[in-house]
């Protein structure tokens, strides 16, 4: 499918889904909003202070995770790679939870999440160097399990007051999103996407291998470092601000690959919109399925992503198997 045609489909779809999520269980009506007629002050306050920052955070988080997923899959030449599956999310969560338990603010937690995700990614890179795709995923799962165990140990040592906050945060949710977080993610999403998009030729060359990329004239080590840093920053920001929201970085790039092929320029053009649509839809479902109760968004994405991953893993088997 042509990228332009797909964008003309995805943009209205994302807009309609966002509008439906914004007005869900609200007394504000679409026609009234378009006509700018007077509305109850409480409804406007609900819309501006709770719904809009939550929606903006959800869309930005989806775009960040899918951009990071594209970068990680191209770097490791494996369509099964994803920030959550190879340990980036776990590393970011461990560092961010530690910062949160120490009373750090929004930006302190974000910085800790970035360095935690970066450390996990570098460890995976070290363990997965010169390995095939399946062993790379197994190395990532092992590191993710180790970091998850350390996170569990940290949680058991926390006092009750910090325990509740960290536990709820780890489930993944946009419920507590306020304007500072939403604006931070909304500013980071296009900047990180643009920085990754500038490397689309290098990401394409990496599909042929590092040696091929080097002989094509790319500075492999330098550009790899930049991609690694950008992927860790994207995942770290989302995890530190919204908790563990898995599989978006796997589903969005793979769906985009099925629609537009493996060209990184096309993938990076389409994947962020698909990721934003996935997280906005998951947030809408989290508020709708058990209303007035609310499910964590991370539960929704995991329920969708785990079967998707198993199907993708099965489809990646060699034919002779």
Q: Give the fraction of residues assigned to helices.
A: over 70%
> Low-confidence parts lasting 5 or more residues at pLDDT below 50?
none
Gyration radius, in Å = 20 Å
CATH architectural designation: Orthogonal Bundle
Pfam families: FecCD (PF01032)
Subcellular location: Cell membrane
Membrane topology: Multi-pass membrane protein
Protein name: Iron ABC transporter permease
Task: Describe the protein.
It holds the Pfam family FecCD. It is found in: Cell membrane. It is a multi-pass membrane protein. Belongs to the binding-protein-dependent transport system permease family. FecCD subfamily. The chain crosses the membrane at residues 106-124, 136-159, 179-197, 227-252, 295-313. The protein is mainly alpha-helical. The chain has one domain (54-311): ABC transporter involved in vitamin B12 uptake, BtuC (Orthogonal Bundle). It is 77% helix and 0% strand. It is built from 14 helices and no strands. The protein has helices at residues 3-23, 30-35, 41-76, 88-101, 106-128, 133-157, 160-170, 179-197, 200-206, 210-215, 220-242, 248-260, 264-288, 297-315. Helix 1 (3-23) runs antiparallel to helix 3, helix 3 packs parallel to helix 8 and helix 12 packs across helix 13. The longest helix is centred in the first third of the chain and has 36 residues, at 41-76. The mean pLDDT is 83.
């Amino acid at each position: 499918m042509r990228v332009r045609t797909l964008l003309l489909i995805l943009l209205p779809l994302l807009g309609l889904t966002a509008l439906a999520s914004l007005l869900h269980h609200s007394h504000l009506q679409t026609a009234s909003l378009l006509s700018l007629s007077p509305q109850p002050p409480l409804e406007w306050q609900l819309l501006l202070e709770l719904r809009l920052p939550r929606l903006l955070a959800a869309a930005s988080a989806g775009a960040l995770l899918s951009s990071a997923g594209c970068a990680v899959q191209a770097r490791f030449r494996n369509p099964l790679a994803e920030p959550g599956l190879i340990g980036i999310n776990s590393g970011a969560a461990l560092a961010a939870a530690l910062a949160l338990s120490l009373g750090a603010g929004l930006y302190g937690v974000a910085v800790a999440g970035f360095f935690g995700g970066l450390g996990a990614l570098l460890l995976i890179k070290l363990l997965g160097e010169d390995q095939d795709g399946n062993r790379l995923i197994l190395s990532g799962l092992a590191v993710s399990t180790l970091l998850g165990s350390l996170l569990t140990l940290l949680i058991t040592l926390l006092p009750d007051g910090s325990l509740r906050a960290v536990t709820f945060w780890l489930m993944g949710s946009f419920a507590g999103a306020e304007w500072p977080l939403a604006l931070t993610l909304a500013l980071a999403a296009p900047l990180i996407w643009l920085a990754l998009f500038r490397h689309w030729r290098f990401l394409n060359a990496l599909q042929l291998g590092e040696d091929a990329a080097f002989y094509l004239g790319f500075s492999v080590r330098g550009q790899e470092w930049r991609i690694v840093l950008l992927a860790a920053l994207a995942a770290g920001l989302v995890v530190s601000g919204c908790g563990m929201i898995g599989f978006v970085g796997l589903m969005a790039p793979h769906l985009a690959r099925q629609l537009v092929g493996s060209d990184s320029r096309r993938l990076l053009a389409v994947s962020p919109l698909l990721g934003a649509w996935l997280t906005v839809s998951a947030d809408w479902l989290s508020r709708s399925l058990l209303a007035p109760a609310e499910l964590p968004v991370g539960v929704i994405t995991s329920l969708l992503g785990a079967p998707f991953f198993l199907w993708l893993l099965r489809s990646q088997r060699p034919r002779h198997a």
